[in-house]
Structure formats: structure tokens, C-alpha cells
Automatic annotation (TrEMBL):
This is Microbial-type PARG catalytic domain-containing protein. It comes from Rotaria magnacalcarata. Residues 259-301 form the Microbial-type PARG catalytic domain. InterPro entries: CHP02452 (IPR012664), Macro_dom-like (IPR043472), PARG_cat_microbial (IPR019261).
Length: 455
């Protein structure tokens, strides 16, 4: 869709009236591409950290929780692809007459990081033969627990779009998908970041011998981000970074942004289920976004495309989606936005990843999450950020039970920090930052916390 179409109205005024007779199971037409080889996943070798690998290993080794969307299989694929890539790099290094000590140390260091602590505190190394056997069993198992819950048997791709529903919110969102995304999202509109280090790697700089050896340094979907960061380096972006507090739903706030501006919004996402409680008509921020846009298709395209039939948002990373389309229910106006698909810890009940053991660890790990999605917004800004609106909010402070003041303080800290090569606070990479929430009391807390920023 062209830039000029960011805010427009459908000429067909029958969008809402068609819903009255619309049966999604009978009339919803969609196509999808053949799923790629899951083991062909991009591995950001130069950006790997000990904490990231520990996170993945611990999640893969946890057999206690129901795996609703093959989340563990998705993470296991990453490990197997990483092991294969390290073996390839080792062979290349051994075949060379001269190889720097730095490269050898890096490959050895990554191997040393591939250790995890099981529930009895014992440190273990992965048994790659066992992991490969486990993966083969998982791929042979065609049963998806979510599909089983809805009465299905052998899982088929995109079954989520064929489940019979009787609620107008879900049927309306399917109509939106049918209208704008019958063929789904393009591969370059769907991005997956494992940590902030992967995003920092996109910034222009002189490549070291190690980085040249570990090519490619970025996923093909990030070609546009790399070019944008080259054309408009972050150190040159020095905008006001004006912070505004908006007390209304995100599905309404997007239509208040100037029509020619780029919007990047934060979705408070479920880390192991595309759309969280979308199919049971839950009513959190993520589901509200999906009921009012075509964004649910993007999450399914992530699941059946980049994630090989499973779904897992990285603990210290996120997914990034370009060009989701919001629909105004009353005026039929539509608006394009980009979406940060990120998650927060669920206090009191661990999800896919282990919860932090204490407040200090919680702050460290949650800051890593925030660093990643703010860096992703910076990397995917169009132009120099002077016409970009970043829509954030009190992520994790609803059903997940995180303290509003704690989350507000982390936002203040991360937006005041330097990253991506900035000379000053990273909030200055954007013209406007909105904190959007339906609860006025939460916005008041955020405003009080941010009032302590020294200008």
C-alpha cells in the first residue's frame, strides 16, 4: 500500500452491512505459501549472548507445561540450526591457513554458553542427538493442542482461520483480513529479533574481521532497516521526543495521529500463542488490536512462515510487523501502522520462559526486553524519525500483574538511555511518543514518573 493511502476510506460502504450475512467458515477465502524448511531459520551468530542461549535451553527442557502452539519446537529448531551453523563455521575456520584468535575464541565462547541449569540446579550440556530425535518426534506429531481443544485432529496450516466462531468481533476481523490480506503478509513485512544486540548490529560501522567471518550479519528482511540506518544514522536524529498521555483505546488512538505520519505501536503480546485469547474473545490490549485490524493474519504468517508451524516470541526479543491495517468501525476509515509484538513476564505464573527469581533479576531482564523493542522501533523508522509517532503503554500491568510504577520507571530509564549509536536519549530519535491506555490512573502514574526527567 502506498504512503498516500495511510488514511483513507473504503469506497464500499457495505463493509459493516456485509457482516450481517457473513459466515467466516463458509466465505472466508485465503491462500498461504508452502511452509519453508524450519531449519533454514536465520541465526544471528554475531549477536548471541549467554543469557539468550540459556533462555532458549531452559524453555526447551521444560516438559511440564502444555505446548499449545509448538512453542518449544520453534525454540528447538533455533538450537539445532545454531549447532549446524557453528559446525559449518568451524569447518571454514579449520580450512583456512590463517584464522585470528578472536574468531576461534568467539566460536568456543558460544559453545561454552550452551549450558543450562535444570530444576535441581545441575548444569547440563545439550545432548544434540537427543535433541534431534526429540525434534523428529515433534515434527511427526501432527497434533496441535489448541486445535485439539477446538475439536480438531490432524493439524493443518492456518486452522485458526477455519474454526467456527459465533462472535462478531472475530468475524469482523476475519472480514478485515479477507478484505486487505487474502494472500497474507510478505516476508519482508515480518521480522524476528532475538535480542537488542541483533538490532544494534544493524547500525553502520566498520566491520571487524570477526564480523566479516560471521556474515551474513542481518536477516534479509532487514535490508530496508540497514539502508534507513545508513541514510539517517541515529546519531543525527535529534527530535523533541515529545511525550503525550492518551486515555483511550489503542484502536481509537491510531486515528488521532496525523494522517501523513508513520505509526509504530507496541502490542502487549502473548509469547506462546498468536493473539493470546483471540479465539476465545478475550479483551486485553493485544486482542483489541486484532479485532480492529488485519493483524491476526500477520501473527499466523509468522507462525506458519518464519517459525515453521510453531509460535514463540523470544524472551529478550520481539517480532516486528510492517503495514497492519486498522479499520474504524463507524467511518470505515483505515490506517496503516507498524507493530512491535513484545511480551512481559507474568508475575506469579511462568509462561514459556522461567520467571526472574527476584526484583533485581526482573529489572535486568525486563530492561533487556524494553531495549529490544525500542531499538526495533528505531531501526524500522521511516526517514529520520521526524514524522514518526511511537505508541507505547503500560505493558504487563493488567492480567500479568506487573507493578505500574515499576514499568513506568523502566520506560523512563530506557527512553533516557543511549542506544543504536545515539548521542543523547533515544527518545530523541522520534518526534512524538504517546503512552496510550484506557486507565487514566495508569497514565497519571506514568506522567508523574516522567515529570522527573531532567531536560
Amino acid at each position: 500500500m502506498e504512503e498516500s493511502d495511510r488514511s483513507t476510506a473504503f469506497g464500499d460502504s457495505s463493509l459493516n452491512t456485509n457482516l450481517q450475512s457473513y459466515s467466516t467458515t463458509d466465505h472466508f477465502n485465503f491462500t498461504y505459501q508452502t511452509m519453508p524448511d524450519p531449519l533454514a531459520v536465520y541465526i544471528p551468530v554475531a549477536s548471541l549472548t549467554k543469557s539468550l542461549l540459556c533462555s532458549i535451553l531452559c524453555a526447551v527442557s521444560n516438559h511440564e507445561r502444555i505446548d499449545w502452539n509448538h512453542s518449544r519446537r520453534t525454540l528447538l529448531v533455533f538450537l539445532l540450526a545454531l549447532n549446524k551453523r557453528l559446525e559449518e563455521l568451524k569447518e571454514i575456520a579449520n580450512a583456512r591457513d590463517k584464522i585470528s584468535d578472536q574468531i576461534t575464541r568467539k566460536l568456543d565462547e558460544i559453545r561454552q554458553w550452551l549450558v543450562y541449569e535444570d530444576h535441581d540446579g545441575t548444569c547440563r550440556e545439550p545432548n544434540w542427538n537427543e535433541l534431534r530425535e526429540t525434534y523428529q518426534k515433534m515434527t511427526a506429531d501432527k497434533v496441535d493442542d489448541t486445535w485439539t481443544y477446538y475439536g480438531g485432529h490432524k493439524t493443518k496450516p492456518y486452522y485458526e482461520l477455519t474454526i467456527s466462531v459465533s462472535h462478531p468481533d472475530i468475524e469482523r476481523s476475519r472480514l478485515y483480513m479477507d478484505c486487505t490480506r487474502p494472500n497474507g503478509f510478505q516476508s519482508d513485512e515480518l521480522k524476528l529479533y532475538w535480542n537488542a544486540e541483533q538490532l544494534e548490529q544493524l547500525c553502520p560501522k566498520a566491520e571487524s574481521q570477526l564480523e566479516k567471518f560471521l556474515q551474513p550479519l542481518y536477516d534479509p528482511s532487514d535490508a530496508d532497516a540497514v539502508e534507513a540506518l545508513r541514510q539517517h544514522p541515529v546519531w543525527q536524529r535529534n527530535h523533541h521526543g515529545k511525550i503525550t498521555y492518551v486515555t483511550k483505546g489503542i484502536e481509537k488512538a491510531v486515528f488521532d495521529v496525523p494522517k501523513d505520519a508513520q505509526i509504530i505501536l507496541l502490542s502487549f503480546a502473548d509469547e506462546q500463542s498468536p493473539g493470546g485469547g483471540y479465539l476465545i474473545r478475550a479483551w486485553t490490549q493485544e486482542e483489541i488490536i486484532l479485532y480492529n485490524s488485519d493483524a491476526y493474519r500477520s501473527l499466523l504468517d509468522l507462525k506458519y512462515g518464519r517459525m515453521g508451524g510453531g509460535y514463540a516470541i523470544p524472551e529478550f526479543g520481539l517480532a516486528y510487523v510492517r503495514n497492519i491495517c486498522f479499520f474504524h468501525r463507524d467511518t470505515q476509515e483505515r490506517r496503516l501502522t507498524d507493530m512491535l509484538v513484545a511480551n512481559c513476564y507474568c508475575i506469579g505464573a511462568a509462561e514459556l520462559y522461567r520467571n526472574p527469581k527476584n526484583k533485581t533479576e526482573w529489572k535486568e531482564k525486563t530492561l533487556a526486553k524494553f531495549h529490544a523493542f525500542i531499538a526495533a522501533a528505531v531501526a524500522n523508522t521511516k526517514g529520520d524519525g521526524s514524522n514518526t509517532y511511537l505508541l507505547l503503554g503500560p505493558i504487563g500491568t493488567g492480567a500479568f500483574g506487573n507493578d505500574v510504577q515499576d514499568i513506568a520507571k523502566l520506560f523512563r530509564e530506557i527512553l533516557q538511555s543511549k542506544m543504536m549509536g545515539s548521542n543523547g536519549p533515544i527518545r530523541q530519535a522520534f518526534s512524538n511518543i504517546w503512552f496510550v491506555c484506557t486507565d487514566a490512573w495508569k497514565n497519571k502514574i506514568f506522567e508523574e514518573i516522567f515529570s522527573k526527567i531532567e531536560v
